[in-house]
Amino acid sequence: MWNTNNMGNKLKHIGVLTSGGDAPGMNAAIRAVVRACTHYNIKVSGISEGYQGLIDNELRGMDARSVAHIINRGGTILKSARCQNFRTKEGRQKAHENLKKNNIDALVVIGGDGSFTGASIFSSEFNIPVIGVPGTIDNDIYGTDFTIGYDTALNCVVEAMDRIRDTATSHNRLFFIECMGRDSGFIALNAGIAGGATEILIPEDNKSIDDLVDKLKSSRASNKTSNIVLVAEGDQLGDTFKLAEKTEKLLPEYSIRVSVLGHIQRGGNPSCADRVLASRLGVSAVEQLLAGHSGIMVGVQNSSVTTVSLHDAISRKPGIDTDLVHVADIVSL
Ligand code: ADP
Fold it and tell me: Measured from the CA of 112, which atom of ligand 1 is nearest?
């Protein structure tokens, strides 16, 4: 029964931090961790700016009221940072000293695979229990169907595509829209289907510029007068502006415009799906620690909360859904 601190009071104080790239819903995850700790009578401290705050001893005690009015806010109230110092043994040693000084027994790390790598090394070096909560808009973490922030980012890209489509249709134009996805095409593939892209270019595929041109030619032949090509930033055809230039040379009848969505995709109020996901994973992270687990990431698979080793979460990559690629090919005619 989850109604008491059932570790015989062994676990008394949890630290929570957000690290790496921010993602909408991180606040909802912090809130869930803090409120789960309150529920189970455990002290909880928020650590500022990821691992940097651990090294600088920037911690503050939190309670149910310190996370009021944040479920709807993007970003992270704890702030996030990329901390080079934590990559060194000395940096992690300092972080450990501060944990000991503050009597913190365990950590919840909300972030991406880089943050989990740091957490995993730290946990092994100093025998500190850690649980990872996947927070990144890219959805590129093995062991969860969805990461916190992904759904919000998708909706942002689709909304941008809808807006750009108005101009594309009014002027019979071809737009190249670049979305986030340096190493993975989850955002591009899903938003591309939802936003009605004629072509979707993702890092996982090996489409050539000739394939792209053929697709655009056949689209024109079927009397399509405006098109959107959605390009993940890590697509193998390279820089989106140069790709647009090359395409325009091969298809001079098209007037091409490029729109790079950039950081607007990372901000904004989290969607309902992200708030619920973050709440489930935040509570689960605390419960996993209470059950004596460590070195794992909580995630959601087939609608249920599950766990995977941090090792797998870091070292394995979720594959792109080939069924979705098939659907995208059919509906983009
Ligand atoms: P994300 O968690 O979004 O993937 P990063 O890759 O930038 O973001 O990682 C966030 C932080 O995690 C880094 O700034 C660093 O402090 C820590 N980190 C990443 N890799 C390591 C590592 N190999 N050893 C120790 N710390 C690491």
Answer: 2
